[in-house]
Amino acid sequence: MGLHLRRCTMSEDNQLTDAEDLQERLAEVQTLLARHKLVEDLVHRQEGPRHDLVEDIVHKQHLHELQNKLEPMHPADIAYILEALPPDERLIVWDLVKAEHDGEILLEVSDAVRESLIESMARNELVAAAESLDADELADLAPDLPQSVIDDVFRSLPADEREHLRAAMSYPEESVGSIMDFDMVTVREDVTLEVVLRYLRRFEELPDHTDQLFVIDRDERLKGVLPLNILLVNEVDVEVGSLMQTDFVEFEPDDEAEDAAKAFERYDLVSAPVVDGDGKLLGRVTVNDVVDYIREEAEHEQLAHAGLREEEDIFASVWDSVKNRWAWLAVNLVTAFFASRVIGAFEDSIEKLVALAALMPIVAGIGGNSGNQTITMIVRAIAMGQVQPDAMRRLLRKELGVATINGLLWGSLLGLAAWWLYGSYQLGIVMTAAMTLNLLLAASAGVGIPLMRQKFGADPAIGGSVMITALTDSGGFFIFLGLATLFLM
User: Fold this and answer.
1) What's the whole-number average pLDDT of the chain?
2) What are the structural domains of the chain?
């Protein structure tokens, strides 16, 4: 599921870097790659008795220098660098990365880049990369791996890990179960804090984002949670049951991941338990899983708003990019052709009053901008759960009011400008009326399009800007030229 910042087994010195430092590292890698290519080309052109030996030495020298640059870097930083390189250089860097970090890096890169890296890997490399991951991480990577690799990894897992993997892969993509983490610490309510502390010291390190321990009974049913701050400030002879909190946020695996994200934001959660219908503890959701989900949804919404079907590798082939972009471009072509036919229907009016040709793009452009503002606000509100389909009438009244005020205000200014430029107050009145009507059309479409798509189970964000622009262009031309034909000819 897109990009993931996961727990690493790398050294403490290997930390995520800030954006400026990361850009410097990328520049250094690009410089080394360019030098490597230049020197290799020069050596390749030379002829001599030991040509092959010299070429091999130079080749290894530059790759060794590049490998030393990559070795201390965090998987997330390496993933960033891989995405910023063209395919041929990307594969050079990928081959230099230590094999034990392949799985972590594959989780960090975008879906499009991950696909190209997996295609370059041998089957045994893929199996080794998959085996280095936890069950929940492997479930994220599994859709992109060949089935034979999944089968090999599945057979190699211990029974409990196998069951975790099977469970993680069974949940829908947008559910809590799909982002659930199985790595957690559980304790019993009838033990003392001293026993709990001794138990925790047996861990080399606690699971990431462990802010609380989960208290379960012998049947693994969740009884409560024990925050670490409470554990640390109380006497060691106190029992867990007397300190555990029974008022906490919990989820079921079939709950919407979006609802979990809202709960984490509302209650400032770091982790929360996931239980089945009988109250049995299955796993937990952590803040990093939620952040990953929110980022992925934001990226999806941004792409969908522009009419892109999926995330695209910036260095993808021409054909792959064409396949990703053609659908909504085709829709845009049809709507643009329709808009041209609207203009064509008023050719006589435009010939009689050339000013119409200069002014009509303003009406259409302002309408498109206003409609995109409205649709962005509505889609954002839908994503945050603040708007339901039955709210259309109330939202429409509000947006029509905003459009009326903006239309009269800015339309009047443009009308005065048209009067001053062309010496016709009638043209100024038509300009004001057309601007106001087109903004009302944009407001209606900006509210109606996403809410109707939501009502019928479609993604409200997909193609919104394309549809709103098409409608306000055609509508703006028709309204302005129609009014001009009626009152000025």
Assistant:
1) 84
2) 19-173 (1.25.60.10), 186-305 (3.10.580.10), 318-488 (1.10.357.20)
Residues 269, 274, 277, 279: is their CA dihedral positive or negative? negative
Q: Indicate if the pLDDT at residue 211 is higher than 90.
A: yes
Say how far apart CA 181 and CA 411 lie, in whole Å: 56
Entry pTM:
0.68
d(CA 457, CA 258): 16
3 state SS of 318? helix
Output the CA–CA distances (angstroms, integers) from residue 199 to 69, 161, 194, 281, in the order listed. Answer: 40, 22, 9, 19
What is the chain's percent helix, strand, coil content, to nearest 5?
A: 70, 5, 25
Residues in the chain: 489
* pLDDT above 80 for 463: no
CA-to-CA separations, 164 to 2, 152, 181, 287, in angstroms, rounded: 21, 16, 9, 20
**Main-chain phi, psi angles of 15, to 5 degrees:** -110, 160
Task: Answer for the pair 307, 329: CB distance below 8 angstroms, yes or no.
Answer: yes
C-alpha distance from residue 475 to each of 39, 182, 219, 407, 430 (Å): 60, 54, 65, 15, 15
Place of tokens 């205000």: 409
In sequence order, what DSSP letters do the residues of 103-142 get, joined into one string? HHHHHHS-HHHHHHHHHTS-HHHHHHHHHTS-HHHHHHHG
CA–CA dist 79, 104 (Å, integer): 9
Give the end-to-end CA distance of the chain in Å, rounded to a whole number.
Answer: 60
Q: Which tokens belong to 367?
A: 């309408």
